[in-house]
Specification:
single chain; about 575 residues; alpha+beta; Butyryl-CoA Dehydrogenase, subunit A, domain 2; Butyryl-CoA Dehydrogenase, subunit A, domain 3; 3 domains; seven-stranded mixed sheet; two-stranded antiparallel ribbon; 21 helices; 13 strands; about 50% helix; binds flavin-adenine dinucleotide
Length: about 575
């Protein structure tokens, strides 16, 4: 029996009025061409358009949170970056950065130790794009962005990240360093370099915490700093230091007897000749983020300056982590969104069983539910950005929850999108394997899921009043009461045993509050209402009977309704 794809797609009986579609299948069966290496069928490649104008979530976020006057100024910059990130030029930079991996020349011709780190042109090119587009600078430019610089900055981070060959890693650490150094006038010149819009001036920063003894638990740090007449001398071994090509680092070291302290240290000596007491022990051999030079470093008498007070290292680095976790949350959702964009563009071009892939209800339902999931994650991540610089104590909790939840969901979404492109999804040329590999680290660095969840469990009791106030404003006080009363009923052992569930449940409650608020706005449409249904129970209710009849139509609208053009740029 012949099945009409149009009828199948929209859940109607198989006796079809769509004769034309049926005839097409018949004729297709009768005249099958013989293929050769250069004749027969070739799949039309999926194409991505401007990543700002074609993204329905970004437009919504912009309208919700950014004032009209700032939008007027920012939109041309977003559009320009939206084009850059799908341009031929950036594709070449990514390819180059992924092919020509960083390496270290340990000795010169005469056997002298030099530890010269060589990075690719593609990797270095990313710094130029980042700097010219103000990826760090915008967050601090309150004059230009009328106090909304953080939102403008993170919309740019969202656009840039999936095409950055993970250059957003050093950028996030640079932002964290800029934020903490901005508090101390002694670091005024360093701060100016970190937020510079001039690539010849701009510095990037590393963040060296993890040692062989541990990254989650830095209390066993072995690196020591000793006070000298001109500052501190730092000696020890750092096990993970990404962006080894940076100009400076913030690092933790023991200052007995006061404990762990935070230090600023330039990587090179004042003359610019040679390292400031740093030896590159070796570069890491990683699953992903391969263009990013991550190294093990030996420090011998590295000259550094104390940031804050002795013994306050963990407290000081925590404020840096709030920033890098925000970067991580936004980078997560942007990677997932890019993977989804590729999968939906592919489905629009691919034909299976005589019909377009994006008309098959099963496939459409998958794309649609991932898109609704992404809308919720986008709300959570960008809402967290609102707390940056606001002095709101909820920042720590939101940053931990958003980082942990968005990272985990991203790994899931990218994996699904890879499968959604069939065998081609597994091929490097589609970018999906790169996005997949790179997504795995998002749940590890800046705090693993367990570590963040444990932090959430520890933080909740300190922020009950603030959580209630937030929930009250969002109209979900009852739900928050239920959540907190269940939390209250658990003893410490249960709380830590169930820390992940507690943390993820909080994430889902926060998302639910945000999508509910969005769906209640006057201009809310089918997307916002469907999003509300999806997040009501974190998963859509299984529909039966007549409801299911309309499902494919709604799914199509969710997947393609506001994003119909995929014609300009090749992947
Ligand atoms: C590509 C890459 C780049 C990196 N770059 C940097 C960098 O630039 N600077 C830097 O400082 N670090 C960097 N890291 C290190 C990273 O931050 C750490 O790997 C991470 O914090 C985990 O620490 P660990 O590796 O010591 O694992 P461990 O701390 O040993 O963790 C092992 C497991 O134990 C679990 N665990 C730990 N503590 C708890 C707890 N209290 N409760 C429950 N479970 C727990 C963790 O969730 C994890 O699953 C990088 C890592 C990678 C992969």
């Amino acid at each position: 029996m012949l099945i009409c794809p149009k009828c199948l797609a929209f859940g109607k009986p198989r006796v079809s009025p769509h004769k034309a579609s049926v005839r097409r299948i018949v004729s297709c069966k009768m005249s099958r061409a013989v293929s050769s290496s250069d004749s027969g069928f070739f799949q039309k490649p999926p194409v991505l358009t401007n990543q700002f104008t074609s993204d329905p979530h970004l437009g919504r976020i912009l309208n919700l949170y950014v004032s009209h006057s700032v939008q007027q100024k920012a939109i041309p910059e977003f559009k320009s970056l939206g084009d850059i990130v799908v341009s031929e030029k950036i594709s070449r930079l990514i390819e180059n950065a992924e092919r020509e991996l960083p390496y270290v020349v340990q000795y010169d011709e005469w056997g002298r130790r030099i530890d010269k780190l060589v990075t690719s042109e593609g990797w270095r090119g990313m710094k130029v794009i980042a700097c010219e587009n103000g990826l760090v600078a915008d967050g601090y430019d309150n004059e230009k962005w009328q106090g909304q610089g953080r939102l403008v900055q993170f919309i740019k981070v969202y656009l840039f990240n999936p095409s950055s060959a993970t250059f957003t890693c050093p950028l996030s650490m640079t932002d964290g360093a800029a934020q903490i150094l901005s508090r101390d006038p002694a670091f005024k010149e360093i701060f100016a370099r970190l937020v510079s819009r001039d690539v010849s001036e701009m510095w990037t920063s590393g963040q060296w915490m993890t040692e062989r003894t541990g990254g989650s638990d830095v209390s066993r740090t072995e690196t020591q700093a000793t006070k000298t007449s001109s500052g501190y001398s730092i000696t020890g071994f750092k096990f993970f230091s990404s962006a080894t090509d940076s100009d400076m680092a913030l690092l933790l070291a023991q200052t007995p007897p006061s404990g762990l302290s935070l230090f600023y240290a330039p990587l090179r000596t004042a003359s610019g000749q040679g390292f400031n007491g740093v030896r590159i022990h070796r570069l890491k051999n990683k699953l992903g983020t391969r263009p990013l030079p991550t190294a093990e470093l030996e420090l011998r008498d590295m000259k550094g300056e104390l940031v804050g007070k002795e013994g306050c290292g963990v407290k000081n680095i925590s404020s840096v982590l709030n920033i890098t976790r925000c970067w991580n949350a936004i980078s997560s959702i942007s990677g997932a969104q890019r993977a989804w964009n590729i999968a939906s563009a592919y489905a629009a071009e691919r034909t299976v069983f005589g019909t377009q892939l994006n008309l098959l209800p099963t496939h459409l339902s998958l794309l649609s539910s991932m898109n609704l999931m992404l809308r919720g994650l986008t709300h959570l991540a960008f809402h967290t950005i609102l707390f940056l610089g606001s002095g709101d104590v909820l920042l720590r909790l939101f940053a931990a929850v958003a980082k942990a939840y968005c990272a985990k969901k991203t790994i899931e979404i990218v994996s699904e999108c890879l499968e959604a492109c069939g065998g081609q999804g597994y091929m490097e040329e589609t970018s999906l394997p790169r996005l997949y590999r790179d997504s795995q680290v998002l749940s590890i660095w800046e705090g693993t899921t367990n570590v963040l969840s444990s932090d959430v469990v520890k933080t909740i009791p300190k922020l009950v009043t603030e959580l209630f106030a937030w929930a009250e404003k969002k109209g979900v006080r009852r739900e928050m009461e239920e959540y907190l009363s269940r939390f209250d009923g658990m003893d410490q052992v249960v709380r830590f045993t169930r820390a992940r569930e507690i943390s993820f449940e909080l994430a889902e409650l926060l998302v639910w509050a945000l999508v509910k608020e969005d769906a209640e706005r006057e201009d809310a449409g089918v997307f916002e209402r469907e999003c509300l249904l999806y997040w009501k129970s974190a998963r859509p209710q299984v529909e039966t009977g007549s409801q299911a009849q309309d499902r494919a139509k709604i799914d199509y609208e969710i997947v393609y309704g506001r994003n119909p053009e995929y014609r300009h740029s090749r992947l």
